Queue: 3 jobs
Job 1
Amino acid sequence: MSEHILEIRHLSKAFGSHAVLKDIDFTVDKGDVTTIIGASGSGKSTLLRCINLLETLTTGEIYFHGKDVTKGKVNASAYRAKVGMVFQSFNLFNNMTVLGNCMIGQQKVSHVAKTEAKQRALFYLSKVGMAPYINARPDQISGGQKQRVAIARALAMEPEVLLFDEPTSALDPEMVGEVLEVMKSLARDNMTMLVVTHEMAFARDVSNHVVYMADGVIEEEGTPEKIFTDPQNQRTRDFLKRILNG
Amino acid sequence: MVTTLLSDIGSLWAKYGTVYLTGIANTLILAVTATVIGCIIGFFCGILQTIPYDANDNILKRILLKLIRIVIRVYVEVFRGTPMILQAVFIYYGLPYFFGVSFKDIWTVSIIVVSINTGAYMAESVRGGIMSIDVGQFEGAKAIGMNHWQTMLYVVLPQTLRNIMPQIGNNYIINVKDTSVMFIIGFSDFFAVHKMVSGAVFKYFPSAFMEMAGYLCMTLLASFLLRKVEKKLKGKSNYELVGEDQLVMAAGTYSYPSEAGSPFDEVNKDYKGENK
Ligand SMILES: Nc1ncnc2c1ncn2[C@@H]1O[C@H](COP(=O)(O)OP(=O)(O)OP(=O)(O)O)[C@@H](O)[C@H]1O
Ligand SMILES: [Mg+2]
């Protein structure tokens, strides 16, 4: 009877008449590392954005600890502080230093005092190996470093779930590894994560749950062993064949 | 002859030096005040115009926001689309008709006119500035739980200000020069001094020469200060790496809030060790 952190129920999303997500249903439990894989345009980013309430769903519900966050007077800001998000394009604040990026949310959203916010920021920045760079501005560090700072910024809010939308897709190949290392260490530390990725090795080796999406529906989901060695669905097989041999 | 010119300037300066300086002071005070107030108006309008709304918001909010956008649009078009000299006359002589008061104080009217005019230009700059900020900046802020106003205040507006600094400087320089049209309602700026003095002593060219030099000094100084401010807003061009020992001291003092200890701690029962 473990309580689900997140429960996505019958989620559908349409942009105008274009149905992008259709009746999506899945749950995330504490400590889960769920990867979402699927072809480009299958709706993975849209799903994450819906979960973070950056998009309003057309129909369906999202339960966070059993409470529907999509209906009525829900404080989206408070919810987002608990469900962090890391973007493909980092989205670090250009007007702040690395340290400032990791402090501002704590101070203004969670009302953490300045000295504690700084300690917390340093704590998480050292977790991602970026502590020496606290005085740098985002335009002064590499893509991989930016993404690690973005992860620290999200962690500094001490969220219960972290959403990642293709965190390594905008990176030069030699920088992918450093970000994946950080994510692996988070997984080891039992951080609950929901990761959209094209890194099949990460999905196979690090996650404990894999969701395969195609054309806005979940075609197949299960443990990585099952999805990668014994996929039931023809489309899953085709997709994996394409991406693993590609 | 250059020597005659110089001696003419010398005698003008000896007799009217303080008058010229007062003119310069008046011009600068008006330009600075009106640029500052104009920027405030501009930011105010720019922010109001970019409050997002969508089909899910309630009807009252949508109507209100739409109305605000229309009002600002009209304001901008009217004050960008007519000459300031006419706006001055319009407001100075128009107010008594509508409000039954006439402004006896030329300073007040002048500041109002130039500020409103500058505000119309700045409103557009600020709106454009806000819209040119990458949508990722808004989403990054939202994703850590900031609301719209926090996002604007801490993330978007500081970047907007930095981006539109050249326009602000430009407006200021234009104001230094164009406040000269306020003579129409009797404001005695630097250029008004020229008309007064040269009319009295018939030294048109020497006076004009001094005016040219005076205006150029004011605008060059403005350009110089603007560069300084821009550089300052841009921040340092390099950064220093912070040494390990300093960090360890600060970082070590933070203890993770959960009872089980940090999930990053080895004391945590969930900790699985370095290798999975
Ligand atoms: N704001 C929007 N307006 C209209 N259509 C959109 C919008 N955002 C996404 N879409 C459409 O939704 C579909 C799914 O997009 P989405 O970005 O979620 O795919 P994805 O699975 O993340 O793809 P990728 O792997 O390329 O990132 C696409 O067909 C896209 O064109
Ligand atoms: Mg995507």
Job 2
Amino acid sequence: MIENAKYPMPVNIVVAHGLEAKALITILGLERDQASSEFMEYSNSTMLRLIVSGMGKEAIAAAVSYLGKRQALEGAEIRAWLNIGIAGHRDAPIGSAWLGNKITDKGSGTSAYPPQLIEGFQVGSVVTVEEPETLYPLTAAYEMEASAFYAEATKYSTAELVQVFKVISDNLENPISEIDLQTIPDLIAAQAPQIISLINGMSEIAVGHNSSQQLPSCYHEICSKIHLTVSQQLLLKRLCQRYKALGLEDELRRVTDLNASSARQLIQQLTECIDRISEI
Amino acid sequence: MFSTIYIEEEVLESERVKALLDRFSQVPQVVCGRYGEVFNRKSQNFRLQKKAPALILAKKHGKKVLAAPSGYGYNDSKSYYFSHMLNCVYDCRYCFLQGMYSSANYVLFVNFDDFEEAIEEKIKENNGGGVYYSGYDCDSLALEPVSNFCRHFLPVFRRHPNAELEIRTKSTQVRCLLDTEVVSNCVIAMSFTTSEAAQQWEHKVPSIEKRLEALHKLQLAGWKVAIRFEPLILGSEGMAPYESLFTQIFSKLDVQKLHSVSSGLFRMPVDFHKRIVKLYPDEELYARPTETVDGMIALKSAHESSHLLAIEKLLLSYVSSEQYYRCA
Ligand code: SF4
């Protein structure tokens, strides 16, 4: 299954509860990551990562912020963020599931709308509440984390790559007070094909985005050899992108091999060279 | 056709909206407050959204008819533009809309009656005249089967024969026009670039042949048509691509009957350019050297003026100088 995937899956899965994580760990072939001390984390060799946040808006915002900040230090590539969890609904069957295309925070009354780029999923509304909802007044999945998850995760990624997937665990006929917690892993496991397909779709978009933004290796070599100020780094980055876009990576290497005496001189040489070659 | 349809609460009861929702009942529909909650949010990515754009049905508040940027038009009459839509179904890599919005979703303003009222007010202000451009923030015809733009706005201009409507497009959706009696003060202005440029940068746009065929049909039916050679992006191939483009176009159409022909170089506001570079760092067009003049980015070329003059000279061997103008 997914553990044999040959391609990267830069997706962070965030769940509130260990029971929601349980099935995912098996489905996705994840292993406990010992490095993290603040939250339970799991990962595999495909770049998939799962973090268990704890329940409620504060807890999930803290987990997203913790992981997002740490990953921002590790590199510039963006990752997709996926919140998977159980929810209640007035009359949707237990075990049904959907991607949230509207997330309303009941407390503030504000709504967010995750852009839907991936086809083939059931979609629906999600309402985030402070306390478990038993009356389910709207036609929506009621849960306790999505609005905070979305608000926080969109600080670290683009909105198109932040999604919430909710599995219905309770409804009016099967009230929340009667949920057998031990059935939660099974409810999530039953959605395995959907979850894997969603992760694949999100990965494909993230990988495509990252590859369009990828810098030539030369950039990193120069950075390791010459001291550059922040603004020089930005200039160099853009110059490297331009050489790449124009199919001039050999020329980029030739100019950088000239051993400029300073970052300023190197940037000047690179600018003059590319402007000369590419001007029509 | 659309990944999702978002509907502003305020327009839910509009007949136009009800009809659209009926027609696209299989597309997920989401009610929102104002369209700004969905469109053009800070953390959105135009390039990614282009993969599966959504349709947003909204009400346009505030000014609906605006003064056209200087140099946009072809005569000295006061000129205006109005946008019943934001964004475009096509995906031209040189398009400034990529830098203008962070969202690629299509916003369709459904309060056509309010636009009509604003247009009529402006016409009145201009003693019955003025030039009115549609297709500045969108392609007016490309979504015609959904918007019914022509069906609503052509009769408005039919009532005001001294006001002129220019519909700027790259679409071949001309059935709505061919099925209607000609509106003599309406001009269909089709934009073209060379076939090399079209292949490289005009994604999802109908082929030059198909666009030309549509114009030909319009001309035969008596509609006024115009040609816009925009944006001119000079390449290393010299004049050959223009020679073949001009031959193709002017041998197909009745040149005498052309309303106007214009050209305009690739230009865009610096801020838009910056945003597009971030979206498309891998795009050859945005890797070329540029220069900034009066807040606008242009491609830097030592030969730009001579190239442009050569193109104009060639163009003027087909059309009269009265028919031709250069966009600022
Ligand atoms: S047809 Fe016009 S509006 Fe549409 S993408 Fe191309 S340039 Fe932009």
Job 3
Amino acid sequence: MKISYNWLKEYVYFYLSPQELADKLTNVGLVVADVKTVEDDFCLDVEVTSNRPDCLGIIGIAREVAAAVGGSLHFPEKNFLSSNTEITKYINITVEEPVLCPHYTARVVRHITVEPSPEWIQKRLRCVGIRPVNNIVDITNYVMMETGQPLHTFDLDKLLDQKIIVRRARSGEEIVAINGARRVLFHDMLVIADGKRPIAIAGIMGGKETEISESTRNVLLECAQFEPRQVRRTSKAVGIASDSSYRFERGTDPEGVDYASQKAVGLVKDCAGGEIASGGIDIRSQRYEREKVTLRMERVHKILGLEIKRDVVSDILKKLQFNVINEVDNYIDVEIPSFRGDVYREIDLIEEVARMYGYNNIPVKTSISVRGSAKSKEEIVEGYIRQFLIGLGFYEVKTFGIVDTSSLQRVNLWSDKEGIDIANPLRQDESRLRTCLLPSLINTKRYNINHGTEQLKIFEIAKVYLAGDKMPQEKTCLSLIADTDFYTVKGIVESLLLNLGILSKCEWTIFNESRLFSNEKATKIQMDRVTLGCLGEASKELGFKTSTSLLELDMDFLVEKSCFTKKYQTLSLYPSVLRDLAIIVDEEVTWADIEKCIASVKISFLKEINFFDIYRGKQIPAEKKSMAFNLCFQAQDRTLKNEEVDIAQQTILDNLCETLGAELRK
Amino acid sequence: MLDKLKKVKEALQNEIEAAATLKDAEQLKIKYLGRKGAINDLMKLIPTLPAEQRATFGQQINSFKIDITDIINEAFKKLSSESIPKVKKEIFDVTLPGKRPFIGKMHPVTRTIEDIKEVFARLGFDVAYGPEVELEYYNFEALNIPPDHPSRTDFDTFYIKNDILLRSQTSTVQIRIMENQKPPIRIIAPGRVYRPDTVDARHSFMFHQVEGLLVDEGVSFSDLKGVLNQFIKTYFGKDVQMRFRPSFFPFTEPSAEVDISCSICSGKGCSVCSYSGWVEILGAGMVNPNVFKSVHYDPEKYTGFAFGMGVERIAMLKHGIDDIRLFYENNIHFLSQF
Ligand SMILES: [Zn+2]
């Protein structure tokens, strides 16, 4: 809301420069974003919060200034002379929807001359950013800027059947608004109609056909109150917002209609001549009752933590035009003025007190009680993983949860269902909640390659959104891309699991169901029959020049499985014996087979099996491979004898021969 | 005879010491060990000796020959190493760059959230999380923002379906926590939020917020100022000033915008603070009694405060970043600076 410094001065006495005024207003909650010189005046751009429609008029701002600086208020008179002809001779008005239009008034001025308005009006409008049009339109804008009450004028001679009906639109009815927009209306919208057709979308915008033109001689001035939510809904539905709808949807002063109407009609006569028809039409469905609220001093103290005297409080309220009805002991009864629709509870009055007393005058207390706070398991795990990966040279990235619907983003590792779409996306091609983090990381890697960084290790911890019954399932995932091979990333996963105290065994199975991964060098990781994630080298299709591996893990599952209670295990006092072995097996035999076979022998003092090499080629028959590993034997209670280790090793070898057809490589 | 051997040896040692080049050594080798050399000359003397002395003398010549050979070889070694052109002694250069281990970085948004969490953890705040896809109820109604309320304009929102949306504020977590817990409550809730804002240097359709909530008996606006003052002084520095301005949020009353003195110009006025000396960093207020009603808390018994801040905004202020889009481009040259 833009206000004129000179205009404001007409209603309230103050001795403040425009900048000082701006600071004062900012301190009471009316942030002044900007102060500009306009001609010989200043324009202050005031940010009015949505709860304060009363400040969408200069008079409302004047009240705040008066309360803040203690200056007195004085509003201009609104005297005018009217003719002897009754308004009812010219127009007949019915309100069919009293709930949606609780108050409707109209006045008629005849024999006017439409011409540019006087310079003083034009100047003020220019100052507050409104383009002058003609005297009639300018006056409605002027009074709206002054009082916050929107008004509209119709060309009286264009109203069919000399009628105005405030009714719901008939579905399918059309209107062309003043701004040229043609709109089809529906039954849930409120319109102002004449005998035949809608002539305005109530509270939002008038129609082109009844608009004031240079040839207009007789005008009808509408000043009304419309139900805020109705105005908001319709404004959104027809896609038209105006200064008028902006004010109506925030709520106008129920006692302000008459003042604005009289002020406007007086100005019309002054500026456009003509004669005012006697009386006005005033249709009001029910009397407005002012709210009464009791303010308890002890509550003021409790909410604000401030010791403040009752007379200081009541003084603040009076300055804000609140009517203090009663003031005894430790409470104050207050009648709320009609323009302060936002105040109807005790807490609202406390806010007013705090605001005017000054937030910065409320003491800063540091006496909140002591309380312990521990990290949750998910915070611990997430923090650990982050530090772990950073230590390994990974950069953390953050990418958007809303993605495009390209085939890359359609990859879904976690569900067979399609991703969830946003009903009102910002851009048509960015409309989906992601189902997988990897595509965003792939794009990030590509972005960096294009910006000259080829070598890159990145990770992200964020949510994916999977279609669910009513609400989507949100799964937190850990995803990474590294310019390394399969086994390096696999090693990272193994080390991570170990360090998170996850003891369950992983199943690693070939995974060739996703186009992100190479067909051969990719695996699905399962633990306790639940999918923990996928890992593999990037598919050639992705076009990375160097060997690149991808990983996506279910973080929620990692958190669940992590275990940080560590129990100390006695260190063995006896030496361990290491035996290196190399066996020749068929190409099909996997390391997992070998491990399983060795474990099945159940040698109590076999501590570890460590793979160290695989070899194919010279000295190894075709379609066979040599697997080299060592066995570490150690007992807790004795030094192992060579002979018992020999026997154990032989038993293992025999079993490998029998089960897997292995042969000792000599 | 032994004297003779001694003399030959002495002569050799003198000559060897005088030898300056490999060539000299070569000549000495021929002179002593060659076919017509001194040793062979001595060998020729053997038949001339009495029979009983021959064996002993033969052994003496042999061991003498070994000694001579050693001496000459030694000379060769010494002279050959000297014959290589002299190289200056290697100097260890401590100014060469070290072999740096490659360490990654935390994203600046995470870093900021972690720092904020850290300050509030020390004030006894737990961390709480909530869903990003929310029921409209938690994003609006329960927070005292009824349908068709004008303040909804301030919270443009992405919708999935009628009553399901992407949360536009982390205040949703307040309600979920209060629904499931009785006071006292002391939490902060960091997380992603979404708003259909056109992307530019100041706006992003996704950003992060940290929401805070403290509810107990006897909590006042003055405590809110106390807690935020602690936070601001700890996070931004002891010399930073704090300013509260009245504002409006549907879920708090009284509501405030909190400014801190501009750290760039120390309050003198610059482009970062639009020449006001102050920058807005968070919104706060006393929990609106209507919010307490929606979670069935007795507003007469309990009072509380809530606050919320934009993480990117704080990171931008702290590091002097002028474009919010940088956070999501993830250019390594950007990420490596934090
Ligand atoms: Zn500054």
